[in-house]
Amino acid sequence: MPIQHRSELSPSPAEPAPSPTEPASCASSEFAVALLVALVEGGVRHVVVSPGSRSQALALAAAELEQAGIIELHVRIDERDAGFFALGIGMASGHSAAVITTSGSAVAHLLPSVMEASRTGIPMVLLTADRPAALRDTGANQTTHQSGIFDPFTVDSSDTSPDVYEANPVAAAAKLAGRILGSGTGTSELVANGAPGPVHANIQFVEPLSGPHSSIDHIQHELQAYAADGATASSAHPPIRQVDSASTVVIAGFRSNPAVAEAATYAGVPVVAEVTSGSRAWHSVPNYRDWLAAGADGRNTLVVSGLPNLSREVWAIASRPDVQLITVTQPGSEAFSPGHRAELTSGVTFHGGDGGSQVSTSSGSAATPGSDAPADVASTSTATPSSPSFSGPEGSIGRDDVVDLVWGSSTGGDAIYIAASNMVRVADKRVGASPVPVYSHRGLAGIDGTIAAAIGVARVAESVQPGCLIRLIIGDLAFAHDVGGLLLPTGEEFPNLQIVVVNDHGGSIFDGLEVAASEPTLYERVVRTPCDLNVANVAAAYGWEYTLAQRPSELWARLADRRPTIIEIPMATV
Predict the structure, then answer these.
(1) Tell me: the pLDDT tens digits for 209-240?
(2) Letter string b/e over residues 327-348, b meaning 16 or more CB atoms within 10 A of that residue's CB
(3) 422 CB-near residues (< 8 Å, 6+ apart)
């Protein structure tokens, strides 16, 4: 589990007093502005705000920094969606977004995104406003135990009381920001303990909750007087492991390190790269499930990078006692290790085999998901691909058609997001080696927050490659689960996102599992849970353009026009 250091921050006795020439300011606002400025100077560029009263100092500070052009501000009504939106930003950029919430149950809504970020090492800063500690356990309104609420899943957590920042808000902000950035979630360059992930800073605010503060320029000048503090010690990486190419197969799972798959390819080692691995460009084993189930041509060394979770065959071969399991990982990260039997390493060197040379992967850290092409995908053309030919009478669309058309319409700079539903497995079986970047939050394989996370990815992608398009493939249940992610408050830019809803009226992913053999009425009622979701009405309610595509040519035409939209594809039920 991630390293945890939870404590109440204490003021430094040697901190200088604020300048007597500055006008009186509200401590809460002075501290809030200074904290955000310090985080920005440490590499944080995106701030996500969910409205609330107790968090007003932080929210107003974020709005002011947006006006000054210092940050990119995003507002989300639902805290769960705010968390997943920030998760998408972290996935696509490798840099953390700061999420601001008010006190009470608002904080708890962040837990699903925090769990996902923890499992896969995605950086995130959680700034939760709280009422003073003296009100805890008194029945006070909107007061609960927020401090340490995410502890099993955070790199670091802290609880800042008013007496810490009231005497010298800027100094206290500098200290807290240094701790946040040093805990592994500011930028990739600032990771101190080797495992990035979510950091939780719980801040107790007292009245007045906001008010006047010094100018941003003055606060920036004062911050220079305080050195960043609180970085955690670095952890030692396990040694690099040498393996025999002739006896090895490489498995690239979710958030794998593409350098492992690339090195294996040059050494002539077979590579099984799941479609969400970020290493699909080096995938070399068609029908890999059957190949693994048949014994992988007798290869008895399994090198795994990332977290494979799209097939039972990978878990089965990794659990075999006659197979040596080597997992490329980094300190503090959860490693793939069925039966806790994996040998952990920070990298591998291949020798022998078809490649005839030694290739080393010296880092076990996961690359930014989606960056799986051998060349820089973002620098290639964004021209619309030519229309495919449809032979014979055109019928209804199948799941394979959806995958083929979405991948076929994606050009350089575009990317695909896949929900953790049935379609991700269809894509994993259907797509060959591909340079198209693919995103998903497959760490815990939940369907929550998918729309919000995809919009977060789109925000980053647009800033890096103007004109690029993200396409989200999502089932009807995952779509319904995060329908609130479609809500964009006034002032928010519309994302360059096409949402392809594969509507099969329920959880068809369960049809291939043992539970499908249950008594049909019971199975339908509590497992498959069919629902009559009116996607067109949902789109209209949230202000999205909508199209119904019932034939392949209709889907292709809608994908090719590249306008942000929701495309519903009805599937025949069985």
Answers:
(1) 999 999 999 999 999 888 644 444 445 666 88
(2) bbbbbbbebbebeeebebbbbb
(3) 399, 475, 502, 504, 507, 508, 509
Instruction: Extract the tokens encoding 226.
Output: 């305080």
* pLDDT, tens digit, 9 for 90 and up, residues 509-532: 676 677 778 888 887 788 877 788
Length of the chain: 574
Do the Cβ atoms of 78 and 54 come closer than 8 Å? no
Q: What is the DSSP letter of 551?
A: S
Cα–Cα distance for residue pair 374/258, rounded to 1 Å = 9
Adjacency order of strands within the sheet including 156-160: 6-8, 156-160, 198-204, 124-130, 97-101, 46-49, 72-75
* C-alpha distance from residue 568 to each of 388, 409, 422, 564 (Å): 20, 17, 16, 13
- In our burial notation (b when 16+ CB lie closer than 10 A, e otherwise), range 53-90 reads ebbbbbbbbbebbbeeebbbbbbbebbbbbbbbbbbbb
Q: Provide DSSP, 233-282.
A: PPPPPPPPEEEEGGGEEEEE-BT--HHHHHHHHHTT--EEE-TTSS-GGG
Q: Which of 527, 529, 565 is nearest to 546 (CA)?
A: 565
Beta bridge partners of 542: none
Measured CA to CA, the distance from residue 192 to residue 182 in angstroms comes to 6
Q: Tell me which residue of 359, 372, 319, 325 sits closest to 345, measured CA to CA.
A: 325
CA distance 213 to 26: 6
Task: Say how far residue 392 (Cα) sits from the centre of its chain.
Answer: 42
Angstrom distance (rounded) from CA 502 to CA 397: 10
Q: Position 360: which residue type?
A: S
Q: Of the candidates 563, 418, 428, 446, which has an alpha carbon nearest to the alpha carbon of residue 502?
A: 418
Strand partners of residue 326: 303, 343
Pair type for strands 470-475 and 6-8: unpaired
pTM above 0.85, yes or no: yes
Tokens of residue 514, six digits: 């043992």
- 3-class DSSP state of 194: coil
Distances (CA, A) of 404 to 380, 388, 413, 434, 475: 21, 10, 18, 12, 16
Distance between CA atoms of residues 105 and 111, nearest Å: 11
**Tokens (6 digits) for 76:** 């989300």
Structure-block tokens of residue 562: 């590249």
Closest CA to 485 of 508, 509, 507, 501: 501
Residue among 367, 332, 441 nearest 83 (CA): 441
**pLDDT beyond 80 at 203:** yes
